[in-house]
Structure formats: structure tokens, C-alpha cells
């Protein structure tokens, strides 16, 4: 990874992680997942970090996993960087704030389900095209999305892979507020600074209590998804989907 693909900036108690791989639509490589996982692990133990912001660019949040990586170097073990990142995110004890503009594909949307506050640009477009790629959901989205949206809405998003916009996401309770794209990241930062100013022990205890009832189920769902995701990733449907994307053609699933 170019060390600029994920920018990290700490100021006034807020660690900001910014996707910055614009030429590839902020798609996330294994090296970027490793950097994200390491940053969260360090932030967890660093008393100077009191809140974390995850953000992208005002035109694109993230095109999800790097599909060339999926094709050439799929995550091979349970401690692969992508899973380390997701487990770090799931169990992160301090407040997580996201700023999302433009496309948020795959993990670009599912990571938001683990954030405490989510601010979206009016240009935000969320999509979960796992099935269309021959894959299954990750980040416990197979549990969290039906829980938040209800089964039939989650089925449109996860089975049909239908994208949805900021208004829909706000109505479904996936984002807190819709803003002009140019204001999203600064607003997310401002909210994180407000959190950073609060008494940390009370804040961390409150987040833990809010998540207590679902914590075990989320961990179980993530592990179950991981068991299915790996074989699908190496299967013929996914290989065809990734090759088709790289070759800029429509996938042919007639034989899979
Ligand atoms: N992995 C690897 N490269 C990606 C990528 C991804 N997930 N998403 C985009 N890119 C690359 C494209 O290959 C292209 O590279 P090139 O300039 O070398 O040809 C570049 O980023 C620009 O992408 P492009 O598709 O031309 O941009 P767009 O504005 O027309 O569309 C998206 C943006 C995000 C809608 C579209 O790129 C897309 O659908 N990406 C794939 C999303 C996906 O399926 N992610 C996996 C989820 S599990």
C-alpha cells in the first residue's frame, strides 16, 4: 500500500482515519485493512484517543474490498487483515463516528453498522452486492441489517443487491443526519470532538451497555459468515464476478 492510501490524523482526542485511494475509488486492499486494524488496536489502548472518525472523500466513501486483491490474494486465514479489522471494529470500546459521501459499497456500508454516529452526504449511495459477486454478507450484516431494517427490506439490499440512498438510510435508522457532501467530514469531526470532551469512563460504559445485549450474537454471526465467505470467495461464481469486473464485462453466471 502507498502509505497515503489510509491517512491517519490525531488531534484534540480524535483519531481520524481517511480512505485516500481515489484512483481506485477508495477500494480497500489487504494492506489498508492491516493499517486500519493496527490503528484501531493502538487507539483502543491510547488514552489520548477518545473518539475515532472513519471518513472518505466527498465524492466517494469506499468501493469496498479491492476486487483485484480478492482475485489474486484472497484472505486465507481467520487472522487475515480484513477479519482483524472487522473484529477490531466490532469490539472497539470508544465512540466511532463515520462520514459517508458518494458510493459506500460492500464493507463500505457494512462497517457503518458498527459505528455509533453516521453522517451522510446527500450524494451517499449504499450497496451490498455480495450475492451479485458470488459472496455472502460479512461484518455481521446478515444479522444487523435484518435487525435494523426488517427482513424484507434487508432482503432487497442483500439478496437483490439493490442500492439505496441517503434519505432511505436515514429513514431506516442507518444514518443520523444528511448534509451537503462538503460539510460531512467536518461535521463528523465536530461531533467526535464533542464526544472526546465528555467523561470517558461514562462514555465507554454507556457504549458497552448499549451493545451488551447483542455483542455475543454479533460475534457469532461474524464467525459464521467468515466460515461461508472464505469458500465462496474461492468458488467459481466469485472468480467469474471479479474477473468480469477487472475485464469490464458483464459476468456470466450461467455455469455456476
Ligand atoms: N476494487 C478494485 N478496483 C476498483 C474497485 C474495487 N472494488 N472499485 C473501483 N475500482 C477501480 C476500477 O477498476 C477503475 O480502475 P481503472 O481506472 O484502473 O480502470 C477505477 O477504480 C475507477 O472505477 P470506475 O468503475 O471506473 O468508477 P465509477 O465512478 O464508474 O464507479 C463504483 C464507481 C464504485 C460504482 C464502481 O467502481 C464499482 O461498482 N466498483 C466495484 C464495487 C464492488 O463490487 N465492491 C466489492 C464489494 S464486496
Q: Explain this structure to me?
A:
The protein is of the alpha/beta class and 256 residues long. The protein has one domain (1-180, 199-256): 2-enoyl-CoA Hydratase, Chain A, domain 1 (Alpha-Beta Complex). It is built from ten helices and ten strands. The protein has a six-stranded mixed sheet with strand order 1-2-3-5-7-10, sandwiched between helices. A four-stranded mixed sheet has the order 4-6-8-9. Helix 1 (30-45) links the parallel strand 2 (14-19) and strand 3 (51-55). Helix 5 (141-149) packs across helix 9. The chain is globular and about 60 Å long. The chain binds coenzyme A. Coenzyme A binds next to helix 2 and strand 6. This is Enoyl-CoA hydratase / short chain enoyl-CoA hydratase. Its EC number is 4.2.1.17.
Key descriptive features of the protein:
six-stranded mixed β-sheet, 256 residues, binds coenzyme A, ClpP/crotonase-like_dom_sf, four-stranded mixed β-sheet, alpha/beta
